[in-house]
Amino acid sequence: MISNSYDKISHMITYSKANLSEIVVSYIKNKILTGELKSGDRLVETDVSEELQISRAPIREALRELNMRGILTFSPKKGSQILEMDYEDIAEVFSIRIPLEMQILTIIFEKSLLQEQDLDYLETLNNDMIKSDRDNVIDDKEKNFIFNSNDLAFHEFFWKKSKSFRRAEILENQYFQLLIAMNKDISTLGIKKEKFDEHKLIIDACRSGSLDKTLHAFQNHMDSYLKAVKDL
Questions:
Q1: Which CDD domains match (predicted)?
Q2: What does the pLDDT look like over 179-202, one tens digit per residue?
């Protein structure tokens, strides 16, 4: 069952110019970003229909789309569930993600696509990623959302900057797959601070103008994720 905290995070979803199935996709992805939906959780059409006050047809369409993206699985007995992954599955996803992101970084450097204002923007995203942890007013779900959405935006910036749209589509789906598998990894400020520091090293490497340093910083960032998965 999905909990009834949708009202608390409804402001996180953008409804303008989105059809109903896109709204459902955003709704489910935001629940993943908050950590509210975890690996193996069931998604029941009637529950989503009641919470969003929409018919079940666009919900079915959204669930099919998320299934195609590898974020949900479906079985006749259990219905739609959030993806479950073991360490071998996660390692396989990383083995695909790392080369793709390195290709993207290489494209960006070869075409000199990064400007100083881009790096300033990445610094802002990185600072915003952990700023909410000093706020005692907002709850953990929203803190997780702020952390994860800024982390996604950080990586997504590079994907889009390269104009490599097919790689970007694959990487976005993989990001959510890995986030589902690692949702326990973001529960402490210590881990979040590590990600902040790793992002900072990537930004500093980009500022240096060295592709080799940037690829090395990115590889270390991914290696720390894999190590965290092993330790879970």
A1: WHTH_GntR
A2: 888 775 555 445 788 999 999 999
